[in-house]
Amino acid sequence: MVSIVIPAFNEAATVGSCVNASLHHPSVVEVIVVDDGSSDGTGEAAMAAGAKVIRLDKNGGKAAAMDAGVRAAKHNIILFLDADVTGHTEQMLTRVVKPVIDGQFEMYVGVRARKTIWLNRLLRFFPIISGERAVTRRLWDAIPIQNREGFKIEIALNHASKQFKRGMGFELIAGTRHHIKERKYGLLMGFWMRIKMTAELVIISFRLYLLEPCLSSLRRACLKIVSLGRS
Q1: Banded model confidence at residue 137, pLDDT cuts 50, 70, 90
Q2: Residue 80 main-chain phi, psi, to 5 deg
Q3: Can you tell me the distance from the alpha carbon of 231 to that of 226, in angstroms, rounded to the nearest whole number?
Q4: Are 94 and 25 a contacting pair, CB within 8 Å?
Q5: SS3 string of the chain?
Q6: In this structure, are residues 130 and 80 in contact, taking their beta carbons and an 8 Å threshold?
Q7: Does residue 107 contact residue 100 with C-beta atoms inside 8 Å?
Q8: What pTM, to 2 d.p., does this model score?
């Protein structure tokens, strides 16, 4: 069985649709919306739609909201959904969560398909960034505390999944719609939030995939030199 966790910050206009699409899925036993310090009635909209609502006193960022949801969840398979994505269907949710339920993957990600073919093909070469992802609780618990921050969490989940034999998989999902930040918050504020998100993703990608492996290799080389010096 599956617990759905929806982190939400000022998403009153769309969170109800997200909850409604989730409640009647045969594998879903609870839908938890974490109201991340919203000021627009997000919690009320989620509760009216039938979700269990956890209210955070202040905005702590996406990862903090996700963590609060996981700690409250009853089950060991968690399906995360973004509150600003609409168009979810039972079939779409099944496609994302079933590979984890069946034990094929530790994490499976549904990536919104673009209308342009070459944009979809680029996904083979760039990090998989999407809020629609099913994970096991043990994968979530494997994320170091320092990586559970803001939008860094999605890269951290990708990286941590490689520690597990079953790893991660993904597929393109058509039919969903993302309500972009520029439309929600205005052009300037939305653009600034997008820049901030991108910067977080670049920083953690550099640290996890480049800096830490280089430092690890350097430490091994130093230990080998010390060992040879003692022999």
Answers
A1: very high
A2: -85, 140
A3: 9
A4: yes
A5: CEEEEEEECCCCCCHHHHHHHHHCCCCEEEEEEEEECCCCCHHHHHHHHCCEEEEECCCCCHHHHHHHHHHHCCCCEEEECCCCEECCCHHHHHHHHHHHHCCCCCEEEEEECCCCHHHHHHCCCCCCCCCCEEEEHHHHHCCCHHHCCCCHHHHHHHHHHCCCCCCEEEEEECCCEECCHHHHHCHHHHHHHHHHHHHHHHHHHHHHHHHHHHHHHHHHHHHHHHHHHHC
A6: no
A7: yes
A8: 0.79
Q: Which residue in 177, 161, 160 sits closest to 169, CA to CA?
A: 161
List, for residues 83-113, the tens digit of each pLDDT value: 988 888 999 999 999 999 999 999 999 987 7
What are the tens digits of pLDDT across the range 23-77? 989 999 999 999 999 998 999 999 999 999 999 999 998 999 999 999 999 999 9
